[in-house]
Amino acid sequence: MRSFRKQMKFHWIDFRKAIYIFWLVLMLVNSTQIVIQHFWPGIIDSPIDQVFAANYSVIVIFTLVAGLITATQTFPLMMSFGFTRKQFFINVQIISVIYCAGMALMQSIVVHAGSAIIHLFDSQPQSSLIPFFTLWYMQFWIYLAISFLFFVMGIVFYRFGTLAGIFVIAVYIMLLYWITEKPSFDSYFNSITANTSPTLILIPLIITIIAASIGWLLCRRAAIRTH
Question: Which residues contact 156 (CB under 8 A, 6 or more apart)?
């Protein structure tokens, strides 16, 4: 238990400052979007439920960087501290759940709170928002799948080098093309969160299970590099 707390503390220290800065910058950008939407609505010509859609792509990019750092830097560092691969991977799973739940919660708050502020200054009818819990729930599963996909990509870069990593990126892009007509994460989130069918959760859930399994298989035999 003590070892587990040390791992959690290590990961939290590793991510805390980056997450704070990330959301500080994103909140400043979103506040600017609200001001522009009120005073110069022609600049942001989007329905109220899509004003903050760009946040999805930004969160995905941040998750990408976090996954790469976890696989290529945190993994060998924790191994050098005496933690086992199993301990590291269990910790990654727990941290990923907490991280994705938090990111989904923050984005849901931004969407609903920002839309409410826009409504205060806009008397024209706007499109209805997805219910708060539904939006959070859908985002959580999508972020979790993406988090493990990027962790796998980081492990591939760590174990097999640049060419193998680029191949994985190409596979991910083709997967994104297959899921949505437009190869962008904000388009994907807009399309998938608009469909609140419970069966839709099966897609990111299956992806999460497969990615986590592959990640463990790659992680358990990864050599520890000191450079």
Answer: 164, 165, 168, 218
